[in-house]
Give the backbone structure.
Amino acid sequence: MRITLEEPLNLKETLESGQAHRWRQIDGKYSGVIGNVLVHIRQSERTLIIDSSSTLESEDFLLKYLRLDDDLEHIYAHINKDERVRTMTERYRGLRLLRQDPWECLVTFICSSTTNMKRISLMVENMSNYFGQKLELGEDIRFTFPTSEDISNTDEKTLRELGLGFRAPYVLNCGKKVQAGDLDLNTLIKTPYTEAKEQLMSLHGVGPKIADCVLVFSLDKLEAFPIDVWVKRALTDWYFPNQKPPSNQDLLVWANEYFGEYAGYSQQYLFHGRRLLDSKPTD
DNA sequence: TTCTGCCCTTGGCA
DNA sequence: ATGCCAAGGGCAG
């Protein structure tokens, strides 16, 4: 399948900005699993070239995942409040938020606690390889992400053996609650931000940061503004220098006021930009 | 009520 | 080689 892009998209920055952790590069293409489909995707200028393990009904599947329905020019106009953000939105122009599956997003970000992006991928791949269904595309073999049923039927020991460490009981508990119907993730898309955040934070292992990740990366809450160590660094270095760093709670209130309804987009550009500032040129 | 310090696991990296 | 760091959160005080 080929998709001609009408709107700006930078596939590389989008898939490598730490939102989703199942994308890997294989000779110039990105390999990833979306739902129960293994996808190979490559961007050439204004064209996306896509191969998949099963026939895609329509291109809407990818348009939705890549949030190509977001009007980036409109969003840039809102979040370009200063030179810092303007620099990032120009440097990484076309970086989009993704619209991920809420369950997968929740489990993945519970796993993100006190670890790094490579290790998050490791945990996610370990769980998928262990629980998931096999998908093949050419020589590439990947597995679907475990369902809440898969997780609810396993035990803490198994999850620890898959490398989750102290996060294992959090993921297990989360699977059991979702499977039991105590938390309906898919209806949270229609729930207002504050209430949806409260519901997510009622889960063990889910605090403000992880809740905001799930809200902005899978539940269409573009005002959510996850504050991790990198965003905290970006904000304290660039907006509150030479003073005692404000608390995360205060930063969150400030960011929502300053950046407005698309704060989540500004967060992604600040995160990505600040992180690459400390990485090696070869990275 | 809100803030602080400590603990939890372990792979990656210098 | 060995200590530090990593898209945090729970808990006690």
Remarks:
- Residues 71-218 of chain A form a domain with the Endonuclease III; domain 1 fold (CATH 1.10.340.30).
- Residues 143 and 252 of chain A are 37 Å apart (CA to CA).
- The first strand of chain A starts at residue 2 and ends at 4.
- Residues 113-116, 118-119, 122, 160, 163-168, 247, 249 of chain A lie near DNA strand B (CB under 10 Å from a C1').
